[in-house]
Amino acid sequence: MAVEEIGLDLAKGAVEVIRVRRVASDGTGVGHLPDGRTVFVPRTAPGDEVRIRVTKLKRRWARGQVLEMLTPTEDRTDPLCLSYGECGGCTLQHIAYDDQLLWKSRFVHDALKRIAHLDLSPTSVHPSPERYHYRSRVTFTLIRLPGGRVVSGFHRLDRPDRIVDVAEACVLPVPAVATAWKGLQSTWGDGARRLPSGRRLRLTLREVDEGVILVIEGGKGTGRPDILLKEVEGLVAVWATRADGGGRLLAGLADGHDTRLGELLSAGPAAFTQVNDSAAEALHQLVLDEVLKSSARVVVDAYCGAGLYGRRVAKEDRLAIGIELNAAAARAAGRDAPEGFSVLTGAVEERLSEALPADVVILNPPRGGVDERVTALLRDEGPSKVIYVSCDPATLARDLARLGSSYDVAGLHAFDLFPQTAHVEVLAILQRTTAVEADG
Questions:
Q1: What predicted TM-score, i.e. pTM, was given to this entire model?
Q2: Which domains, and CATH codes, for the chain?
């Protein structure tokens, strides 16, 4: 029976047996219902035969929940995390690590082919040196409930509006962050009264050279940060976020630092650096190698964050111009900067034209990719080389499609900065086409 002939309500809640064929880019297993609809089922792997309940139904696809694992694939692995069955933080712990890398390469290939019509795959997927305990920055959600109860942790797999209480069970934070989280939970008091007030808080713990800093978002007042600093092992500063994206120091160290590729970067509450330090080193080094092996004299570090690339390039007797929207981060990037590195504060789409012409443009945007005005400007006035660091293959593919025939993909590399999840970092090296250069 064709999908169109089935009433949507008739199959909702139905129990079916399916075989999982592949992994979707969000980490869910993919199979087909008897009527032909594609069904996405979390915590399943290719080769699994499972009995599922259909929990969501659309015209051409559905979501399901595992009721019984009938015949598991031999390639399944036991999750290390005790909360994996209910926590939505990880998606691939049940899949062997080498297979995770293979699927991530396919995620990149499929996105480029579907969206940009480019039949390309990464040369390789650089594995993470650490498969667990790699995150140097972790954000937890805290919710205060009636009666002084508190839940704190990550969003539930099946109910994203609810929080899974996470004590020390999470296997992703680096040891210093895990220790600080355990200490924070035992120190914040009944109803988390030593934290700022408010029903919902976001608590970010980040490892820096000096220890761990805590950034609190969503609260009112200050709580008792002095007690937290005194009793939480490794905690060196407590910050609250401000409306402008910066931070307000509540207690402790005003200037933290983060050393990357030999650069001592300011590590304030707004500064962005990759969460997997050791895996990011290979990515950062390849970006710099691509810049420095060329004769480029002027380099734009767009979405520069803490200014890692621009600062390193400037030390090689090149001119580097950073662009950063967050004012606090832009100030931090420019603090004690080497000669030859300057930072423009504002949106890249609004300030890139001021930095052109250039020999190389480095793009390192957030998950949403670059604004269409950026790709339009690069098509018309772009340099001979663009280095695009992407955390979302789909938006990378969209932006490559927008660049059209102006650039060829001269190199494509993937990096596993987020083991046990479906996220993958991609480095695309773009070379301006001969035809465009000739026209120019």
A1: 0.91
A2: 3-71 (2.40.50.140), 101-128+275-439 (3.40.50.150), 137-259 (2.40.50.1070)
